[in-house]
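Obj.: predict assembly geometry.
Materials: sequence records (below).
Method: joint structure prediction, all chains together.
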Amino acid sequence: MTTLVNSRLVDELGRAHEFNAAACMDCGVCSAVCPLEIELLPRRLFRHVLLGMEERLVEETETIYSCLLCGLCEESCPGGVHITENVRALRHFLNTNAVGGAR
Amino acid sequence: MPLPSKDVIGILSDNLRLRGSVLPIPKRSAIGWARDLNLPRGGETVIYTGLMVQLIPYIEGLVKMQERLGDSFLARFTPLGRWMNRFVNLSAFMARPSARTRTPYDRILADVAGLLQRAGVEFGYLYEDDLYTGALTWDLGADEVVADHARRVYHTLERHGVKQVITIDPHTTNMLRTVYPKMVENYDLRVSSYLEVLAERELPLQSTLSGELALHDSCVFARFENVTEQPRTLLNATGMTIREPEHSGRLTWCCGGPAESLYPKKALAQAQRRVEQLRAVAPEGVTMCPLCLVNLQKAAGETMPFRDISHYLTQASRS
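Observations (raw structure tokens):
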């Protein structure tokens, strides 16, 4: 599969939020401490955003809304990624674009 | 099968936009806890419930309905339900808790008001103008709806001349102290949780309690509002022995509550795992958030009692 990097997605997500997915080093601490053991969140999702893979975000809708926003991953993150706010930004994006709940 | 998240988020957002709360509750139920307390109306300092505690029995009613719907063919009609809910407040018909179900939550609010009075704090109450803050819809990413609502809430506080609010639960504290300043221009409001106020004032105590409590920190208090020491200081002063579970303080584990509106089964599984950690250190659990309280109580069933921190503080401070 060919993936074209599309910066529109990260620009759009970052406009109204403290979105800083680029600070993620993909180290996996977030996945290791997650009480729900959500392996995908947040590091791989952030890669999808950085690559502009909007359709992959839509496929992961349930995962994105399952996150507890409890912040344990953020507390443990060595990269200072605003994980909870980033996940909230993904929900906002899905609400206003793909999922359409809050409209 | 969970209900379609789009429609559940839509119903909650529509309710906040059209009716001022994710789950509109009758005014009489919202302010009933203060009926016999003769709290002055308004003032520069007010106790602010944000309806969070009062909403819990209604949310529980709705979640039970969701669980039933999610497993039935009726789940297919959720989009129609959202459309109808815009014109008729369907959620009010779906969740009608009895007075008996609401009483323990009203007790928490009355206990907190009593604690503040015994600590010598002068405060009023906004009664029907004590509005929901939009915490749940904020978590779900409905930013525009919440921003509009935040301006309405702040305007109401300004109209009453409120300078300081004393909050009860972590979610209302977080919205008013951390989230609203990002959305409302020229926001100027001092926000303190009652636990912070009581710890600072040194709540006068009348009796010494005994027993062991497993302390469950709220994620929002611990990690977003830096409230970890105050509950420990206050509980230690009562004589109760605090037992710290695996994952406590800033590294506390979530009760699962935030997943409940969309995925109740996932929320329950998380709460059950947390109950195991708490049960391993003490026979009784103490919480400081109504969402944590209800989720852990539900997961523990008869195996472990959970109470709000205000219960113990009230027992120790009342003569």
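Conclusions so far: Strands of chain B lie at 45-48, 124-125, 164-167, 190-193, 212-215, 241-243, 285-287, 306-308.
To do: check interface contacts against the pulldown list.
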